[in-house]
Amino acid sequence: MRPLQGCRGRGVVVGTVTLCLAAGWALQTPGGVSLVVPQPNINATVAQNILLSVEYSCRGIATIEWKHVSSWGTTSIVEWKIGNYVNISTVYKDRVTTFENGSIQLHNVGMRDAGYYFVTVTEEYGNNAYGTIIVNVYEIIYEDLHFVAVLFAFLAAVSAILICFMWLCNKSLHLFQKKTHKLTASTTEEIELETIEC
């Protein structure tokens, strides 16, 4: 029976040492990732540049990944590790700028860029933080511009018609005055002739 008690005593010691080592390792491991999304909703118009802004903090080296989810499907935009590499997907190759704080800028957005943008920050020790930004993209309302253009064309046409009408009135008045002047001159000549004959 004595050997069994000795084994039991060593097991307790080994268990205690293992527990202390695990607690020490847990205390030394950097603690977690925090991620802040200051603007969770963004409204943009077609051809505009937008900033998907986030701010993260962690003790280790982080890997940042952005994905876009819309009615057209899920697309990986970019993944990078600070100071190591940047892997931008071919769809977004010339349209994305990355920043050290985890933010990205999308250039020349279109209607297909509307949707949900998910960012994942993964610490080298395996801790994760997630964030979401909703982007709404609107078209420039060409109907309003079309209405203004049609209204401008209509006013220009009315102005042209009024100018032509005024020119015709002026011309008619000038002709009428000329004719009246001729009549007056001829009547005066007749009266002078009659007086001479007398």
UniProtKB/TrEMBL annotation:
Q: Where is the Immunoglobulin domain?
A: 39-138
Domain of life the protein comes from: Eukaryota
* Residues annotated as signal peptide: 1-26
Principal location: membrane
Q: A GO BP term, please?
A: filopodium assembly
Instruction: State the coiled-coil residue ranges.
Output: none
Q: Which Pfam families match?
A: V-set
Could you list this entry's UniProt keywords, alphabetically sorted: Glycoprotein, Membrane, Signal, Transmembrane, Transmembrane helix
SUPFAM superfamilies from the xrefs? Immunoglobulin
Q: Which residues cross the membrane?
A: 145-169
What are the record's GO terms for cellular component? axon; dendrite; plasma membrane
Q: Which InterPro entries match?
A: CD2/SLAM_rcpt, Ig-like_dom_sf, Ig-like_fold, Ig_sub, Ig_V-set
Location in or out of the cell: Membrane
Q: What is this protein called?
A: V-set and transmembrane domain-containing protein 5 isoform X1
| Top-level taxonomy | Eukaryota, Metazoa, Chordata, Craniata, Vertebrata
